[in-house]
From TrEMBL:
Stored InterPro entries: AKR (IPR020471), Aldo/ket_reductase_CS (IPR018170), NAD(P)_OxRdtase_dom_sf (IPR036812), NADP_OxRdtase_dom (IPR023210)
Sections of the chain in a coiled coil: none
Keywords, ordered alphabetically: NADP, Oxidoreductase
Superkingdom of source: Bacteria
Domain NADP-dependent oxidoreductase: 4-247
Family label: Belongs to the aldo/keto reductase family.
Organism classification: Bacteria, Bacillati, Actinomycetota, Actinomycetes, Kitasatosporales
Annotated signal peptide: none
Pfam families for the chain: Aldo_ket_red (PF00248)
Name of the protein in question: Aldo/keto reductase
Residue ranges of the TM segments: none
Keyword Calcium in annotation: no
Length: 263
């Protein structure tokens, strides 16, 4: 899996083809969508018209909450594949654990079947806390390869990252730029950016790469799409990394997975 990919949350279906097309031209090879984003079709169109060989792309989609459960997961997966116009995805994720519904173990059994058939090359989860992962690991034959969670310099998720490392689960950061709001105006990040003659967004993405996160920034602006992948030509030093470590406020932007139960 490429460590840096392109996320398409909140990109309307008719704009997704253009944005994903721009990302593929800029060199991204990993795309992160989800059934609930409503843009699997646009994403699929961009993939089909890109001319890039399927095996050179890494496509992730996610099962929405209302489809949790064994049979409903199998049906929802077929729908996602059809919308994407693909015969397999590289990664399929359970979008949220929904502990109140208590269906993620049954859902995972359907994920294991899909993986066994080779229609998802890998299976993982999103927004799982260590307690949810612990239960999943105990009740599964195939462990999740990755957990996609909210993670950015102001919400660094030390406990989850340590749990993942212990269980060989990759950490993937959603809203890696903190959705752009506030975080990208932080004076500490601005100083590091000046030092390296880079933008604050590039410094944040470089930080993710150096601490070992998979990262999927989103933008629909072509210049920013290109800027966000141009992060392989410089390196943060120990001082920069420790300054960024100090920005963790422990505050989420998004919902808490323990209580989030929207279907
Ligand atoms: P993000 O942190 O990637 O921020 C995106 C926003 O930051 C843009 O809309 C733009 O306003 C700004 N931005 C982007 N590049 C910039 C640049 N170079 N300079 C200045 N501003 C810039 O936020 P996100 O979209 O919430 O997260 C990224 C991806 O993560 C999503 O598209 C989606 O694929 C995934 N995601 C997953 C979940 C989940 O529950 N699994 C939740 C949220 C997001």
């Amino acid at each position: 899996m490429p460590q840096l990919g392109f996320g398409v949350w909140q990109v309307p279906d008719d704009e997704a083809a253009k944005a994903v097309g721009t990302a593929l031209e800029a060199g991204y090879r990993s795309i992160d969508t989800a059934a609930i984003y409503g843009n699997e079709e646009g994403t699929g169109k961009a993939i089909a018209s890109s001319g890039i060989a399927r095996e050179d792309l890494f496509v992730t989609t996610k099962l929405w909450n209302s489809d949790q459960g064994y049979d409903s997961t199998l049906r929802a997966f077929d729908t996602s594949l059809a919308k994407l116009g693909l015969d397999y995805v590289d990664l399929y994720l359970i979008h949220w654990p929904l502990p109140s519904r208590d269906a993620y173990i049954d859902t995972w059994k359907a994920f294991e079947k899909i993986a066994g058939e080779g229609r998802a090359k890998a299976i993982g989860v999103s927004n799982f806390k260590p307690e949810h992962l612990q239960r999943l690991l105990a009740g599964s034959e195939i462990p999740p390869v990755i957990n996609q969670i909210e993670l950015h310099p102001q919400f660094q998720q030390a406990e989850s990252r340590a749990f993942h490392a212990e269980h060989t689960i990759a950490t993937e950061a959603w809203s890696p730029l903190g959705q752009g709001k506030g975080l990208l105006d932080d004076p500490t990040l601005a100083a590091v950016a000046r030092k390296h003659d880079r933008t604050t967004a590039q410094v944040v993405l470089r930080w993710h790469l150096q601490v070992g996160n998979v990262v999927i920034p989103k933008s629909v602006t072509p210049s920013r799409i290109r800027e966000n992948i141009d992060v392989f030509g410089f390196e943060l030093d120990a001082d920069d990394l420790s300054a960024i470590s100090g920005l963790d406020s422990g505050n989420r932007i998004g919902p808490d997975p323990s209580t989030f139960d929207i279907v």
